[in-house]
């Protein structure tokens, strides 16, 4: 069996007195997409932040390509260079143009030459349909464009693993389609991704593995067919029923 | 004339409308013509603007006349004019005041630059994390607490008269240098707090985004946090610089002649206060271009990017 890109072993995390992640186990194989679903506050964002070492875990371990990254002796900066993150709120740098946002890490962290970084950035921007926005400042872009810039920025460092946190939450349905199409492309190109999402239709279509988080624990894990088709746990069934009621169909997305 | 601007106005807007039409893929439609409703509205707005200007002008004139009559009609006016607005003494004082002002300007430029650098270093030092930096952080905090609380005049007296009293070899006793040093000590503490406030207004998610790209703490500070922080504090910084400019006059307690002291010397001989008025006006005249400069810098930054 091939080594998983990402492996979580009994990861535990609490804020103050509240336990937010309870002994979470997870394996992400190369070139696969894992969707994290679950109600608001179930710990999806926290899980992603722990993987990226933005939060320190209380117990358990996280392995990236077989190396334990939660060992306090590892260099967190080196780990983060191998993981790309796209935040729910974009978090673009407002004082930099789109191009500067994208080339910051390649130039300062990976020491790529100015021209080389620029070329590569323009190529990526073009791939996501943003070539004419390279010199714009983020606040002059639509939400969907900003989200795509955030994706380009994360991709520009050629990460081993891409973490996407509810990247469509703030977008209108048309832009959701735009951004999800990008994710689908990335999957086709073999990128390994972990996606926290409320778009059940999309999770069903694009994911190889779906994890249902509830109160910080992985209640159910399996292929989309298993989790959406025949959920074993009552909680999962209730959650999916609620989502259905709220008008987010579990079928194929409309885009 | 008003007709001209109207034509220009609608031309610009027509362009805009076409651009929007283009984006929606409707460029094939007939060119936009302003409707009667729009023309009527614009005419109304123009009339209203004209009325506001007229009212403002009239009320300014009335206020000015009333103030003039009030001041010149007061019983003490002839005497006041003689002692504060005397053309003869003004002419005598101006060259001396300007000569003194040159010292104020040099102090402002040199101290201002040092204050900005030292203030920024102090502010960044206070944000350093980790046990290694504990002494640096503690020292910076103590420094800011002390010099921000110490009255400037005491700081000046202490440095200008205290340092030479130590009789250290190699240390100057020039009151200008020592006075300047005292100004830098006090003002860098103020400015450090301004910078720190700016750093704190940059949302933590910005730092998180930078760190998640693999930037080190120092790089995140240098490329992401500080550029945003500095932009936000330009207006309060300028305020401190204007204040510094006025306080450069205080180095005269060490016996050097700046603009205010030059005025004082003439007043001391003549018992006429006009030189003070001259010195005051000269300082005001110096502040105005500085304020306009910041307005310009701020506007330019805002046009390059929206709200940050
Ligand atoms: N820094 C923090 N300090 C304290 N509590 C936190 C912190 N971050 C998250 N939490 C708590 O942890 C729990 C899980 O939060 P998390 O953001 O991971 O949820 P989520 O599944 O991403 O929700 P959503 O779908 O709304 O984004 C919540 O109860 C939240 O209040
Ligand atoms: Mg979340």
TrEMBL record, chain A:
InterPro entries: AAA+_ATPase, ABC_ATPase_HisP-typ, ABC_transporter-like_ATP-bd, ABC_transporter-like_CS, MetN_ABC_transporter-like, P-loop_NTPase. Residues 6-240 form the ABC transporter domain. The keyword Transcription regulation does not apply. It is found in: Cell membrane. It holds the Pfam family ABC_tran. GO terms for molecular function: ABC-type amino acid transporter activity; ATP binding; ATP hydrolysis activity. The keyword Nucleotide-binding applies. Keywords: Amino-acid transport, ATP-binding, Cell membrane, Membrane, Nucleotide-binding, Transport. Its main location: membrane. It is a peripheral membrane protein. GO terms for cellular component: plasma membrane. Gene3D superfamilies: P-loop containing nucleotide triphosphate hydrolases. Belongs to the ABC transporter superfamily. This is ABC transporter. The lineage of its organism: Bacteria, Bacillati, Actinomycetota, Actinomycetes, Kitasatosporales.
